[in-house]
């Protein structure tokens, strides 16, 4: 996508600090700013505004994650630019800086705002589509780090059903999957190796079906299951059942086979377990299997700003019956 040159120049002037309410950045600090955004741009000493405009134009030429969304790395740059900790005197809440940023953005059909976590969000004015900074490996803010800690503690204590219902279903809904259906653990005969099945609609309107096999603890290649650890050989049998049994999609009134399978662990998946399963599956099925462990869940959950389960939130101390005066 493209922005008009004057709008790119306006945002570039904010990056380099030639606009009011933004800290001024010399050549060294411009390079440092792009490093914070996980970008390898190094200022070459040329005119700061022109050089920065060119770099912004390059970011906007990257693929859009979805219709009406800005490219991911451009959104990350805007979030870094509008970090509340960069507030200038006379604009401690960054409302003036936000108003300045929205002038060029609204001319392009977008608007920026701060969410409840004081993280900058950008949405398309016409469709209300929010652009997401989907890089789960970017540096986390202090609040995001705290949310990650809380979710990590919750994963230590939750059951397998809670992992599915409270964590995986909200996560995959946020990621754009539809028709999420959890088999549950009350009737094992109905599972056929699937804990969850779901569908994903491609931009071409073709539909792919996904299954999830979830385990609460660590997945390893030990000779037998020990405690909360699960043996990969058990997962192997369940994956084969997942691939071999049809599901019924009530929206299309048709049966379909699972196209891809996620193996999700609430703990870690050892390298030996991944290699063992890869060796057992033939080449066609090997390309259909994807892995997610605890670190993947934590990073995706936090960067997509998904509300934490109620049990993961810190409990408030009970108030005393009588309040002394």
What does the model show?
This is Restriction endonuclease. By secondary structure, the protein is α/β, with parallel strands linked by helices. It folds into 2 domains: 5-131, no CATH class; 142-312, 3-Layer(aba) Sandwich (Trna Endonuclease, Chain: A, domain 1), CATH 3.40.1350. 39% of the residues lie in helices and 16% in strands. It is built from 11 helices and 12 strands. The protein has helices at residues 5-16, 27-36, 48-60, 72-81, 95-107, 142-157, 160-174, 232-244, 271-280, 283-286, 294-303; strands at 110-114, 120-124, 130-131, 178-182, 196-201, 207-215, 219-220, 230-231, 247-249, 254-256, 260-265, 289-292. The strands form 4 sheets. It has a 5-stranded mixed sheet, with helices on both faces. Helix 1 packs across helix 3. It is elongated and about 60 Å long. The model is unreliable at 185-190 (pLDDT under 50).
Key traits:
39% helix, alpha/beta, elongated, Restriction endonuclease, five-stranded mixed beta sheet, Trna Endonuclease, Chain: A, domain 1, 325 residues, 2 domains, 16% strand, three-stranded antiparallel beta sheet
Would you summarize the structure shown here?
The chain is an alpha/beta fold and 325 residues long. It is 39% helix and 16% strand.
Under the CATH scheme, which architecture of the largest domain would be assigned? Answer: 3-Layer(aba) Sandwich
Model regions low in confidence, pLDDT < 50 over at least 5 residues: 185-190
Percent of sequence in beta strands: 15-25%
Tally the beta strands. Answer: 12
Tell me the count of domains. 2
- CATH class division of the largest domain: Alpha Beta
The helical percent reads: 25-40%
What is the general shape? Answer: elongated
Helix/strand-derived category reads alpha/beta
**Mean pLDDT, all residues:** 85
Strand order of the largest sheet: 4-5-6-11-12
Could you tell me how far the N terminus lies from the C terminus, measured between alpha carbons in angstroms?
A: 63 Å
CATH topology of the largest domain: Trna Endonuclease, Chain: A, domain 1
The biggest sheet, with number of strands, parallel, antiparallel or mixed sense and barrel status, is: 5 strands, mixed
Rounded radius of gyration (Å): 24 Å
């Amino acid at each position: 996508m493209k922005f008009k040159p004057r709008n790119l120049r306006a945002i570039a002037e904010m990056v380099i600090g030639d606009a009011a309410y933004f800290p001024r950045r010399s050549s060294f600090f411009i390079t440092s700013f792009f490093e914070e955004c996980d970008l390898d741009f190094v200022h070459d000493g040329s005119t700061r505004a022109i050089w920065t405009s060119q770099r912004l134009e390059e970011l906007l030429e990257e693929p859009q994650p979805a219709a009406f969304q800005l490219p991911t790395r451009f959104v990350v740059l805007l979030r870094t630019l509008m970090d509340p900790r960069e507030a200038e005197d006379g604009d401690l809440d960054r409302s003036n800086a936000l108003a300045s940023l929205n002038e060029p953005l609204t001319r392009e059909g977008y608007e920026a705002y701060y969410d409840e976590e004081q993280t900058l969000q950008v949405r398309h004015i016409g469709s209300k589509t929010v652009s997401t900074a989907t890089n789960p490996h970017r540096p986390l803010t202090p609040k995001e780090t705290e949310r990650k800690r809380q979710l990590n503690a919750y994963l230590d204590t939750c059951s397998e059903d809670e992992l599915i219902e409270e964590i995986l279903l909200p996560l995959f809904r946020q990621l754009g999957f539809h028709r999420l259906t959890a088999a549950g653990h009350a009737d094992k005969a109905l599972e056929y190796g699937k804990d969850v099945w779901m569908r994903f609609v491609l931009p071409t309107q073709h539909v792919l079906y996904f299954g999830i096999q979830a385990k609460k603890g660590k997945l390893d290649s030990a000779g037998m299951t020990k405690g909360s650890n699960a043996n990969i050989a058990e997962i192997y049998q369940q994956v084969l059942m997942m691939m071999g049994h049809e599901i019924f999609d009530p929206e299309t009134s048709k049966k379909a086979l699972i196209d891809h399978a996620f193996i999700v662990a609430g703990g870690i998946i050892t390298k030996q377990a991944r290699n063992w399963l890869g060796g057992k599956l033939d080449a066609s099925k090997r390309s259909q299997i994807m892995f997610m462990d605890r670190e993947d869940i934590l990073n995706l959950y936090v960067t997509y700003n998904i509300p934490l389960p109620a049990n993961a939130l810190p409990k408030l101390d009970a108030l005393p019956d009588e309040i002394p005066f």
